[in-house]
Amino acid sequence: MEKVKLVIQNLNRQEIAIENEEKTIIFYLGEAGIDWMQSCGQKGRCTTCAFEVIDGAENLSQLTEAEEKFRTLGRLRTNERLACQAKAKGNIVISVPESLKLPHIKYSK
Ligand code: FES
Fold first, then answer.
1. pTM for the whole thing?
2. Would residue 70 count as lying in a domain?
3. How many domains does the structure of the chain reveal?
4. CATH number of the structural domain spanning residue 31
5. 103 vs 1, more confident
6. Average pLDDT, the chain
7. Does the CB atom of residue 82 touch ligand 1 within 6 A?
8. Which residues of 16-51 are buried (b: 16+ CB within 10 A; e: fewer)?
9. How confident is the model at residue 1 (pLDDT cuts 50, 70, 90)?
10. Would you say residue 2 has pLDDT above 90?
11. Secondary structure class of 29 (helix, strand, coil)
12. How many whole angstroms from 67 Cα to the centroid of ligand 1?
């Protein structure tokens, strides 16, 4: 696997290396020490771990059943994915949605 980069645009474009495309985005966010909402404990039941896809949507794994369900219910927008469900096999740029920002973190643009 080539070097894959996860960039979080509104966290000062912080870059995280993805080394295993079988691991979820939230795994890498945790490994990098980034606080990220995950109310249901990464079980695909809450949508609080959602991120906006800025670039590289085609490099993400297919929607899981949980994500399909929330899309249908209108709780996951077409430009959003769940960090506990989605995996990346190529470079992606993501952003923390406005409504899911944590109060103690200073986000950039
Ligand atoms: S942490 Fe609840 S859906 Fe991802």
1. 0.96
2. yes
3. 1
4. 3.10.20.30
5. 103
6. 97
7. yes
8. bebeeeeebbbbbbeeeebebbbeeebebebbbbbb
9. low
10. no
11. helix
12. 10
